[in-house]
Automatic annotation (TrEMBL):
Lineage start: Bacteria, Pseudomonadati, Bacteroidota, Flavobacteriia, Flavobacteriales
Protein name: Probable DNA metabolism protein
Pfam annotation, one family: DUF4130
Occurrences of domain DUF4130 (ranges): 82-251
């Protein structure tokens, strides 16, 4: 059975509710905007219902530890349909009273859950390390990221605590949304095509603060001076800093 939903976490929780209520135990999830229904395949369109989503949240609170609830959210953020299918399978089992289900690594769905969780956690950790803010002339610090998974919800609070005295924007170019911090609250922002182009254009439509380019040059010089050519190990370097992250790293723009 295929369930199509809006791609939101509330929509996912609603899909969980519907699958349990309708006794559909083999469910594949797809995002409505990215999906074309195949011929002869039954598709159920999930309408996001916050009350149903809240009931599932309360149910998860009863059968899951706080860590496991967080892990479910992390795996959801992988945006992988096969991982979503594993989540539905696992939560249904838990609601049916199956205990210690996550310890059964012989189950392919459980194994997929743990592998996906590890991948999302790794990406979250890397994004904390690879975010490079640039200061615009209006005093706003901004940066762009293109993570493999939708980890922005997992890193925004880390940067809120770390840069509590600054206004900043982290924008996910791949998913076309960002998180803005105004020194008080975090909020999601969605830019117009013109605004996004101002962020991503290589000609820097956004003007730097007068000291920004100096700091960038100093950082590049420091990075170059500490890079001992005789000890250079590109294979090891790529393991820690994969090439796909280089696009937005100041030290790589030399």
């Amino acid at each position: 059975m295929i369930y199509s939903f809006d791609g939101s976490y509330q929509g996912f929780l609603t899909a969980l509710f519907e699958s349990f209520e309708r006794k559909h135990f083999e469910v594949s999830l797809v995002v409505q905007d990215d999906f074309f229904a195949p011929l002869f395949e039954e598709v159920f369109d999930v309408v996001t219902d916050f009350q149903k989503a809240q009931r599932v949240q309360k149910g998860l609170h009863k059968v899951c530890s706080p860590k496991h609830k967080t892990d479910i959210f992390k795996v959801f953020l992988s945006e992988k349909p096969e991982a979503w299918k594993a989540l539905i399978y696992i939560v249904q089992k838990q609601f049916l009273g199956k205990k210690d289900i996550l310890d059964n690594y012989g189950d392919a769905q459980i194994l997929l859950f743990h592998k996906t969780l590890t991948s999302v956690d790794r990406e979250r950790h890397r994004m904390k390390a690879f975010v490079r803010f640039q200061k615009s002339e209006d005093g706003m610090f901004y940066c762009m990221i293109e993570p493999d998974f939708n980890v922005l919800p997992l890193i925004s609070d880390f940067f809120r605590k770390r840069y509590a005295d600054q206004k900043w924007l982290i924008y996910d170019v791949k998913r076309k949304y960002g998180v803005l911090y105004d020194q008080q609250t975090l909020s999601e922002v969605y830019l117009t095509p013109h605004q996004q182009n101002a962020l991503t254009n290589s000609e820097n439509i956004i003007s730097f603060d007068e000291t920004e380019e100096k700091y960038q040059t100093l950082w590049q010089q420091y990075f170059k001076s500490t890079n001992i050519e005789a000890r250079k190990n590109m294979k090891l370097h790529l393991q820690h800093v994969p090439r796909r992250y280089w696009k937005y790293l100041v030290e790589k723009q030399m």
